Every structure is written in structure tokens, then in C-alpha cells.
Amino acid sequence: MDSASLEPSLYTVKAIFILDNDGNRLLSKYYDPGLYPSIKEQKNFEKNVFNKTHKADNEIAFLEGMTIVYKGSIDLFLYVVGSAQENELMLMSVLNCLFDSLSHILRKNVERVCLLDNMEGVYLVVDEIVDGGVILESDPQQVLKKVNYRSLSEQAYGFVLFDYITGNLEGQTDRSQLL
Fold first, then answer.
1. Is the pTM of the predicted complex or chain greater than 0.85?
2. Which residues contact 114 (CB under 8 A, 6 or more apart)?
3. Are 73 and 59 in contact (CB under 8 A)?
């Protein structure tokens, strides 16, 4: 190994993926184009990771020169992948933020059906936590603030329409304080 590969880097996360309890891909984002360039290679890697982790009781695995932290929930497995030299605590903070944020937007139902019904929100959460392999946020409250603006404004729109129909102009003032 050359010394450049051991230097600290902002590009901490190599991949994030979520698999169901059969090992099928539900979501995946690979941030290192050289790591597994084809979908076939990515799916093979995910299958190997799943086979090694789905029955294990651990939270961390080392496979194919990668550090992998993971968490199971009902019928899902969430994975965050970093290089072999990566700090497991950093990867774990990403995983915990991902799980806690998903738990909130899925109303504590971190399971396959709810995840598939809310994929747009799930991708927004992932994109707020990691961008291009760089960890942007590890605080679920901050992620939810950035992601929930849309759902807050959609709910508020319903209130605006209701207030308009009922002639309640006072409700609009209260709603504007929410936004």
C-alpha cells in the first residue's frame, strides 16, 4: 500500500445499500465508481455481504477489503460500506443516522413494505446523510429538518385549502409560523 491510501479522506463511505430478508436489493448507492463498476458486480458483492451477515449477531464485518457496518430491522438489512482502513465509529454514526431518520419518516415501521411505499423520502434521507461518499450529516434531527420541509409544506397546503373553504383566515396565520 502506498502512503496516499492511508491518508485521511473526506470520501469515507464507499456504498450504502438496503436489502430485504431474502438478500434482494431495495436501495443501493455506490460512491466509488472504481469499486464495483457494474450492477452485476454490485449485486454479487451485496449477495456475499448478505450471506456473511444475515445470520450473524454482529454489527460489523470485513469482506473483500471493505469495512461493513450493518443493522437488521424486521425484514430489512441496512449496510454502510467503507474502506478497510475506515473508522468503524464514523461508519456506524452514518448507519445509526440512516436508521433513526428512516424510523422517523416511516413512523417506526422500518420494514420492506413501508420502505417501498416511501422510496422518494428514503432516497432524500440517504442523500442528506452522504453525498458522493462524503458524510454530510450524522444527526437524524438535522436530516429530518432538511427532508421534512416538503412533507410539512404538503400538509400545510391541505390546511390552507381547508381554511380557504371554511373561510378560516386565522388558521393561515398559525400555519405560517410552522413553516
1. no
2. 106, 107
3. no
